[in-house]
Amino acid sequence: MLFAIHALDRAGALPTRLANYDAHKAFLSDTSRFGVKIVMSGPLVSDDGQTMIGSLFLIEAPGRSEVEAFNHADPFAEAGIWEKVTITGFLRRQG
Q1: Is 26 part of any domain?
Q2: Long-range contacts: 29-35, Cβ < 8 Å, 24+?
Q3: What does DSSP say about strands 52-60 and 2-9: parallel, antiparallel, or unpaired?
Q4: Which residue among 1, 34, 55, 86 has the highest number of C-beta atoms inside a 10 angstrom radius?
Q5: Which range marks the domain in which residue 38 is found?
Q6: What CA–CA distance (Å, rounded) separates 82 from 52?
């Protein structure tokens, strides 16, 4: 099953995001211990097209519990960067 993770940063989180960016990227390099696969991911940006304001993931996983465990273990989550995280099932129709 596919899941979308939509995570919006808290106000003023950009310096903390940048300080944890390498740890976040290393974490994403091997998701096998959670039983999930990243189909697509990247930062959400403001209307200027550059300033990072959150994260978006499309995850393939057996169920929601695996996605939640993966998300909670992310260094960005542990650093308190995200103010709001929504995890939603997704049905692929195109692409």
Answers
A1: yes
A2: 31/70, 34/61, 34/66, 34/69, 34/70, 34/73, 35/61, 35/62, 35/66
A3: antiparallel
A4: 55
A5: 2-90
A6: 12
